[in-house]
Structures are given as C-alpha cells and as structure tokens.
Amino acid sequence: MTNTALITGASRGLGLALARSLAEAGWNLVLTARGAQELRQAADELGATAIPGDVTDPEHVARLAQAVPELDLLVNNASDLGVTPLPPLAGYPLEAFRVLLETNVTAPLALVQATLPALRAAGGAVVNITSDAATGAYEGWGGYGATKAALEQLSNVLSAEEPAVRVWWADPGEMNTRMLADAVGAEEASSAADPAKVAAALRDLVRSRPASGKVSLQ
C-alpha cells in the first residue's frame, strides 16, 4: 500500500525538499502552497497532486481534507516570517502579529482538525515545523518565535490527546531558504544548511516513527 502525505508550503525550501525525498521513497503526495506556478512545477516534477491556496482560508483547508480521505502524514510546514526587517516587540505592529498567528498557529491547527479522522484511521503522523526561535530570546524574532512557541505547545497537547497518532514538533535549524534570506540577508543565509539534508533527516524520522515529541533535525 502506498503511503500518502499532505505537505504545506511545498513549492520551495524545506517543503519542496521533503516532497522530493518522499517521492523518491514512493509516497503519494498532495502539495499545497500560495505560489501556484511554483507549486504546479513541483507537482509536475514529482507526479504529485497540486492544490494551490492559502492555508488560512477555511475553504482551502476543506479542499485539502477532501483530497486526502486516506492520510498517513500531515506536514505543517507553511509559515510566515512576519514583518521585515524584523522589528523589536516594542514596535511590532499588532495587526501584523494577528496575521502571523493566523498563519503559523491557527492554520496548522485547522488542518490537524480537518484531517484527524483520516490520520486516526491510518495510525498516521503529524509533523509541525517549528524553530529554535520558539525558545531562544533572539532580538527581532519575538513575533515569529512567539507563534512557534504556541505551535510547539499545541503539538505537545495534541500528542497527549491523540495517542493513536504520532505528533512530532521538529526544529529544522537554520537552512538556506528564501525565508532566512529575508530575515538575515542572502549572504548569511548561504552558509546555512541545505534543506535537502534536513529533509533527509525528516524522512528518517517518519520512517523510524519514534514516540511523539520534540525533535531536532540538525
């Protein structure tokens, strides 16, 4: 039987690297991201299903859940950095912070809720991509880090409430991605880890199926 994974933020970065890694292992993939053209190119490359859209849109979440009546793995990878240049909390625009919470916290929970019946039936797994900014006091990263801290606690409680489903909240570390470049500049980002290496570690995690909990991918 072929395993099925739903990956958000799959048009670039870690999401695309993980999609490539799982495709090599024979997984059936449903991919989503806001960038429709990039997403469809990725799906064509991998023989996957592309469903472009915004994970903060309830109708889009419903479409994704309908597309995976059987689901072995949900990867909540889609994320928003927030305001750039990264502002201190004293001046963080509150409306922008509300949008950040909607993307990085509410949307992953909505997808979990929508796909839990299929995940329970399959004895599947949820991977929520988090960050060391969830626990580190890094100047400028307060808005983004607070959302990742909330996502970690949601994952922690979900793991206790859903014993039939594996739940991992995974810190990928710094990766050479567009998001990191937006935060720290392209030159500094270029020295970070290749997302493909992090994706390989994530695929190993899924294959080995350890107990639910927080994991580091580097």
Automatic annotation (TrEMBL):
One of its GO terms (molecular function) is oxidoreductase activity. PROSITE patterns: ADH_SHORT. PANTHER family: DEHYDROGENASE/REDUCTASE SDR FAMILY MEMBER 7B, DEHYDROGENASE_REDUCTASE SDR FAMILY MEMBER 7B. Its EC number is 1.-.-.-. Transmembrane segments: none annotated. It is an enzyme of class 1 (oxidoreductase). Belongs to the short-chain dehydrogenases/reductases (SDR) family. InterPro entries: NAD(P)-bd_dom_sf, Sc_DH/Rdtase_CS, SDR_fam. It comes from the Bacteria. SUPFAM superfamilies: NAD(P)-binding Rossmann-fold domains (SSF51735). This is SDR family oxidoreductase. Keywords: Oxidoreductase.
